[in-house]
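Re: the request from the purification team.
They wanted to know what the chain is likely to look like in 3D before they choose a buffer screen. I agreed to run a prediction and write the result into the notebook, where they can find it.
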Amino acid sequence: APPMWPFLFITIACGAISGFHALVSSGTSSKQVRDESDSLFVGYGSMLMEGTLATLVIIAVSAGIGMGYVTKSGETLMGVAAWTTHYSSWAAAAGLGSKIAAFVNGSANMIASTGLPNNFAVVIMGVFVASFAGTTLDTATRIQRYIVSELFTSFKMNFLTGKYIATFIAVATALALAFATGAGGKGALKLWPLFGAVNQTLAGLALIIITLYLKTKGGMKWLVAGIPAVLMMFMTIWALILNQTKFGTSHNMLLQIVNGLILFLAIWIAVEGVIKFMSMKSES
C-alpha cells in the first residue's frame, strides 16, 4: 500500500476540496445563480452537502460492509469478519469496481435495515451511482466545451469555437480515449491512477487564484486561502514525485510521461503563483 502521506490528500477529493468542483462552480454554477450574493449560499452550501455525502460514503464502506458481506463462495459474513475479508489487503480492495461494490453493498445494507428488501436496496444504490456518473459526465462535457472554445479563441481559430463544433471535439476526444484499448470502452482507466493528482492540481490552482484575489483586498485576508493553497500544492507535488518513481519502476511509460507533464505543470503553477504574489506585495 502507498504511504498515507501524501496520498490521503489526493485520494479523498470531492468531499473536502476538488479542482473539478472549482471548474463546475466557475464554468456552470456562476451562470446559474440569480445574482452574485447567492454564490455564498449555493457554493458553500453545496460543499457542505458534498462533505456530508462523503461522510455517508465512509460509513457505508466501513460500518455498512460489516452489516453483511457475501463472499465469492456465497458465504455471508458479518462484523469484523466481513471487514477483514473485503479489506484483507491493499490489492483485494483495489480497483474502481471493488470500491463501487463496497459503497453499493454497504449502502444497501443500511437501507435494508429500515425494512426494504436488500436486493431492492442494491438496485436503488446502483441507479444512484449510475445517475451520479451520468450527471458528472454531462457536466464534464459542458466544461470541456468551454475549455475547447476558449483554447481555440486564444489561437484565433474562431471557426472551432461554436458550441456544436466545440461539443463535438470534446465528445470525440473522450470517445477516442475510451476506446483506445479496444471495443470494451475502458481506455480511460489507463489514466485513472492520475485522476487524484490532476484534480488536486486544479484545486491548488483555484486556491492560488483566490489567494491573489484576496491579496488585492488588503490586510491578511489572503491567509484564508493562502495556507490551504501551500498545503495542497505541496502534497500534490509530493504525490506526483512519488508516482513518477513508482511508474518508472514498473516501466509504465504512458503514466510516466503524463505524470511527468502534470508534475511540470504543478511546479509551474506554484512558482508562477509565488512570483505574482511577491510582485503584488512589492507594489502595495
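For the purification team: The chain has a mean pLDDT of 89.
Please add any questions underneath this entry.
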